[in-house]
């Protein structure tokens, strides 16, 4: 068992992801305990905190702010509940009337389908997302689905053949929010007539370095539409090959949510993730999940984009 002073670390996968026990987030952490938790996140990429028990959204936000600048939502989907803090993103399956979403609510379900593709939160933005912190307020009954999957994008890069590493080392991925939604909802009239190239695009290195550990990361996500300087089809083929490589079962950790009050934190600059769709709870049981996102402040935070363009950027997704 790896040693830690302020909590117990239980590795959940051979190369990344862990659970920690013994962290009570109903009270503020000391600086030393927080530093140990942040180091643990950088090393493992995903940290599940059992029994974190934030007393309210306020403590969830305050905890997140210790990682950096917490994103505030600029736009709230009118088909979602209104929540009191702009820092809290609604990841529930509830609609504006606080009722379970059904498949007939197209404006609500397109996002759910988009999040079921492998991605890093906010990669479509000029300034990307660093940490996401997801809090389980109300989980559906056990074994009805709703788990979250993560892929180790650092180990996946490390294991690539040398010639692939050489081929992709200086490439730039061009990311698009719309690309993800179109891919996930090919028949939706909401996106059918929109062209990805007419919408905002963000440029990020395909292989950025994860600064805290110095390890290269495969930053190809369901938002990556093409590769700069490559024909679109050829770039998309390469992106799909890299995502397929990085999300092989040997690189994936499946987090089964267990108890209300559990929290998952992940580093979007080190791992990919996806929600799993098609669980038996869908359309039937409430799943109230709330997320904060912390903006990246590292050297690759703005990728190859103009930082000015980040001012009006979309909410993370
Ligand atoms: Fe996400």
UniProtKB/TrEMBL annotation:
This one is known as Alpha-ketoglutarate-dependent 2,4-dichlorophenoxyacetate dioxygenase
Compositionally biased, Basic and acidic residues: which spans? 308-317
State the UniProt keywords alphabetically: Dioxygenase, Iron, Metal-binding, Oxidoreductase
Tell me where in this chain the TauD/TfdA-like domain is found.
9-292
Signal peptide residues are none
Q: Which InterPro entries does the record match to this protein? A: TauD-like_sf (IPR042098), TauD/TfdA-like (IPR003819), TfdA_dioxygenase (IPR051178)
Q: Give the family this protein belongs to, as stated in its UniProt record.
A: Belongs to the TfdA dioxygenase family.
């Amino acid at each position: 068992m790896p040693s830690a002073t302020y909590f117990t670390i239980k590795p959940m996968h051979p190369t990344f992801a862990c659970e920690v026990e013994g962290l009570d987030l109903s009270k503020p952490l000391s600086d030393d305990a927080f530093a140990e938790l942040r180091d643990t996140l950088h090393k493992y990429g995903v940290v599940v905190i059992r029994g974190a028990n934030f007393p309210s959204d306020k403590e969830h936000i305050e905890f997140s702010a210790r990682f950096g600048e917490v994103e505030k939502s600029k736009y709230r989907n009118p088909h979602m509940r209104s929540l009191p803090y702009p820092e809290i993103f609604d990841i529930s399956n509830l609609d504006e009337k606080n009722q379970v979403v059904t498949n007939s609510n197209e404006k609500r379900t397109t996002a759910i389908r988009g999040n079921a593709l492998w991605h890093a939160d906010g990669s479509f933005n000029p300034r990307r997302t660093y940490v996401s912190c997801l809090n389980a307020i109300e989980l559906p009954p056990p074994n009805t689905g709703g788990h979250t999957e993560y892929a180790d994008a650092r180990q996946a890069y490390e294991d690539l053949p040398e010639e692939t590493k050489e081929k992709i080392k200086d490439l730039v991925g061009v990311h698009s929010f719309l690309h993800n939604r179109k891919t996930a909802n090919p028949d939706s009239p909401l996106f059918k007539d929109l062209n990805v190239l007419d919408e905002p695009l963000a440029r990020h290195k395909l292989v950025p370095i994860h600064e805290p550990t110095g390890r290269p990361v495969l930053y190809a996500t369901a938002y990556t539409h093409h590769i700069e300087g490559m024909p679109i089809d050829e770039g998309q083929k390469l992106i799909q090959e890299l995502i397929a490589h990085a999300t092989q079962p040997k690189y994936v950790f499946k987090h089964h949510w267990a108890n209300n009050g559990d929290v998952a934190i992940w580093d979007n600059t080190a791992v990919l993730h996806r929600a799993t769709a098609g669980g038996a709870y869908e359309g039937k049981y409430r799943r109230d999940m709330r997320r904060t996102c912390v903006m990246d402040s590292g050297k690759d935070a703005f990728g190859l984009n103009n930082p000015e363009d980040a001012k009006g950027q979309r909410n993370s997704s």
